[in-house]
Amino acid sequence: MGSTITEKILAAHCSKKYIEPGEFIEPKIDIALSNDVTAPLAIKEFRKAGVKKVFDKNKIALVMDHFTPNKDILSAEHVKFVREFAKEQKIKHYYEGGNVGVEHALLPEKGIALPGDVIIGADSHTCTYGALGVFSTGVGSTDIAAAMATGKVWFKVPQTIKFILKGKLNKWVSGKDIILYIIGLIGVDGALYQSMEFDGPVCKKLSMADRFTIANMAIEAGGKSGIFTPDEITEKYAAARAQRKYKFYTSDKDAKYHKILEIDCRKIDPQIAMPFLPSNTKTVKDIKRTYIDQVVIGSCTNGRIEDLRVAAAIIKKGKKVNPSVRTLIIPATPEVYSQALAEGLFKIFTDAGAIISAPTCGPCLGGHMGILASGEKCVSTTNRNFVGRMGHVESQLFLSGPAVAAASAIKGYIAVPDEIK
After folding, report:
1. Cβ–Cβ < 8 Å for 416, 318
2. How far, in Å, are 63, 153, 175, 210 from residue 203 at the CA level?
3. I need a labelling partner for 380 at 20 to 30 A (CA). Which of 94, 244, 322, 404 fits?
4. Which helix or strand (DSSP H or E) is residue 264 part of?
5. Which helix (H) or strand (E) is 353 found in, with range?
6. Would the pLDDT of 243 be above 90?
């Protein structure tokens, strides 16, 4: 019997020819990732185990992206603790200050995450790297501690659900709309502990930015991972950035799937996830007029240059954002920041009355840079809209792609881009 791409990658990292869903394995890892929220606990557990040196200083990534530049004394102490560990262990991939970017945008951009890898991260959206044909998943800080010591992690091999994306994308529909539509279809537990494999003719036309966004939100459907079959687009992206060799894996034609779902993309119009679940999705044009107080365009889902270009094109057309809407633009990485500056996108945003931030995860988790007060409503291109996610428990967060977010910033209510004349 054939294997899925996920089974092949995991088998190769266990030095096995074949593995089956449900089997417990202990694969070698290519990268163990942690950030300023989760790394302090991982390091404490690493110390507690009595280990003196990490298994490989080149295979650990520590990205200080959630509360930096340090927002308070506690975050400063956490980052200092991680920084000193990184220096002691000579960790190659340590990012802070002017080098830092949102981790799940930064690692692929730097060529640290590469096709065929097994990557674990103490952050639930580590599944992002599946866009490159990587098996990647979120784990706990104690798992990262063990991985830093041994270079391995244990898993139960997930079953795979295959999503075949067919048809044609409608105007303004992006990767974010596709994944919100799918999560709305199957629910937040629709892919519980399963690999979500994306394939079909529409996938082959999606940019890497769209693929990253779709894979990123596999966890919002309960998925263990999300993964795309690598192709020419993947090769072009990876070859320009790779810091080491990589390998493409593909599913066999006779691979066994738990389920296969066909998605007709012609049915997808710009989506919005209403409070308080990513699965509470609706078509924007079908909802009642909803006035908002804030828009956030950024994060590991939609802070890439492609997203900022879409937002800038719409905002430029509207000329000014609504004066009652705080509009935050957050490039995901320093490279995105520089590119947006060079292309003149920042002038469009600032002329329109928007605020430009340094790269950060800050507002996504209610950390800093855009916290909501009681009763406030926000349209955000981030990936989670649970109660109190971006601030007060009585605030409301609506998830969308950059096109809807930009249109909403101009109109002052949740809107589609075609409303901007």
Report:
1. no
2. 30, 30, 10, 9
3. 94
4. strand 259-264
5. none
6. no
Burial 267-292 (b: 16+ CB within 10 A, else e): ebbbbbbbbebbbbbbbbeeeeebeb
Q: Residue 297 pairs with which residues in a beta bridge? A: 329
Q: Helix or strand or coil: residue 165?
A: strand
Are 308 and 336 a contacting pair, CB within 8 Å?
Answer: yes
Query: Which of 371, 392, 358 lies closest to 64, judged by CA?
Result: 358
Question: Over the stretch 60-71, which tens digit does the pLDDT of each residue have?
Answer: 999 999 999 999
**Cβ–Cβ < 8 Å for 163, 196:** yes
Mean of pLDDT values over 216-239: 98
**CA-based end-to-end distance of the chain:** 56
3-state secondary structure 109-132: HCCCCCCCCEEEECCHHHHHHHHH
Which tokens go with 152?
A: 């391995």
pLDDT digits (tens, 9 = 90+) for 307-319: 999 999 999 998 8
Whose tokens are 């800038």? That residue is 312
Query: What sign does the dihedral 175-181-182-187 (CA atoms) show?
Result: positive
Bridge-based pairing of strands 60-63 and 93-95 is: parallel
Give the mean pLDDT of 145-159. Answer: 97
Buried b (16+ CB within 10 A) or exposed e, 224-244: bbbbbbbeebbeebbeeeeee
Residues 376-381 have a mean pLDDT of: 98
**Backbone angles phi and psi of 339, in degrees to 5:** -65, -45
**CA 92 centroid distance within chain:** 23
Find the helix or strand (DSSP H, E) in which 34 lies.
strand 31-35
Q: How far apart are CA 10 and CA 25, in angstroms?
A: 8
- Give the start-end residues of each E strand in 55-173: 60-63, 93-95, 118-121, 135-138, 155-156, 159-166
Rg of the chain over Cα atoms, rounded to whole angstroms, equals 21
Query: pLDDT, tens digit, for every residue of 63-104?
Result: 999 999 999 999 999 999 999 999 999 999 999 999 999 999
Q: Strand 155-156 relative to strand 24-25: parallel, antiparallel, unpaired?
A: antiparallel
Of the candidates 228, 238, 245, 20, the residue with the CA atom closest to the CA atom of residue 134:
228
pLDDT at residue 340, as a whole number:
98
Closest CA to 409 of 278, 300, 313, 265: 313
Per residue in 264-320, pLDDT tens? 999 999 999 999 999 999 999 999 999 999 999 999 999 999 999 999 999 999 889
User: What does the pLDDT read at residue 263?
Assistant: 98
Tell me the pTM: 0.98
